[in-house]
Amino acid sequence: MTDDAEAAFSAVADELRVRILRELWDADDPLSFSELRECVDVQDSGRFNYHLGELRGLFVEQTEDGYDLRFAGRKLVGSLHSGVYTETGGMVGPQSVDGTCVLCGSDLEAVYEDQVGKVDCTDCEVTIIQTGVPPAFVDGREDDLAAAIDGYVRTTSRSLLDGFCPTCSGPTAGHLAENDYGPQAVVNCERCGISFSGLAAWVAVDHPAVLSFYDDHDRSVRDTALWHLDWLADAEWVDGAAGDRATVEVRLDDERLRVTVTDDLAVTAVDRAQTD
Ligand SMILES: [Zn+2]
Ligand SMILES: [Zn+2]
């Protein structure tokens, strides 16, 4: 972070300025100087003008129609609404989850605790899914945490695989790697440096060939929770040894679909056949 970051944070380190930003967020249209001052409810015009001036440029713009939030201002107020800077603690669950542990077969449970969402085994140490989430994540989703965690992880991983870092929006690049669980998909952000890794077969979850395979068998891969996609853990290296291609087989009824994931995490060589 640079001096620019310090200047930006100090520009909003004031309760009155945050109120100005929130009022502009709540307004349907740009506000004139006097309308905005009335909303914020500050009598002293000079003081108000000073604080508004500190926000102009990066967070607030003045157009012919009045004052409005710039992109940075909307991002800032949006992150205040997410609760990520203002709400610590908090817990929802644990709730029982439809599904069983891939390792020991015991029941699963979902829990939200202090900006972390998790689907865990109730018996062994396996964590099926763990993800950082803002407090707003549980808003209205308290009754089905498991579905919320499933949806959130799919959304962020889709963004990563499509080339957009969910943390900073910078470009991402992926490759295959080996670990104890077999082939892994590793995605790095080229801007902020954050790194994510998951099972290689994950890359195929949203692939059109997989979607239509499920569809042809009257099922929906999108409506199937990740912990019910048992093939996610089954990817193997092509030719057995760790290399630049991994393959996984999806089986439904009397048919199988084999997809191959290349080193840059593209899905190629889709092969579909009847099983015996
Ligand atoms: Zn277990
Ligand atoms: Zn990033």
Automatic annotation (TrEMBL):
<protein>
    <recommendedName>
        <fullName>HTH domain protein</fullName>
    </recommendedName>
</protein>
<dbReference type="InterPro" id="IPR036390">
    <property type="entry name" value="WH_DNA-bd_sf"/>
</dbReference>
<dbReference type="InterPro" id="IPR055775">
    <property type="entry name" value="DUF7351"/>
</dbReference>
<feature type="domain" description="DUF7351">
    <location>
        <begin position="98"/>
        <end position="267"/>
    </location>
</feature>
<dbReference type="Pfam" id="PF24038">
    <property type="entry name" value="DUF7347"/>
</dbReference>
<feature type="domain" description="DUF7347">
    <location>
        <begin position="6"/>
        <end position="78"/>
    </location>
</feature>
<dbReference type="InterPro" id="IPR055771">
    <property type="entry name" value="DUF7347"/>
</dbReference>
<dbReference type="Pfam" id="PF24042">
    <property type="entry name" value="DUF7351"/>
</dbReference>
<dbReference type="InterPro" id="IPR011991">
    <property type="entry name" value="ArsR-like_HTH"/>
</dbReference>
<dbReference type="InterPro" id="IPR036388">
    <property type="entry name" value="WH-like_DNA-bd_sf"/>
</dbReference>
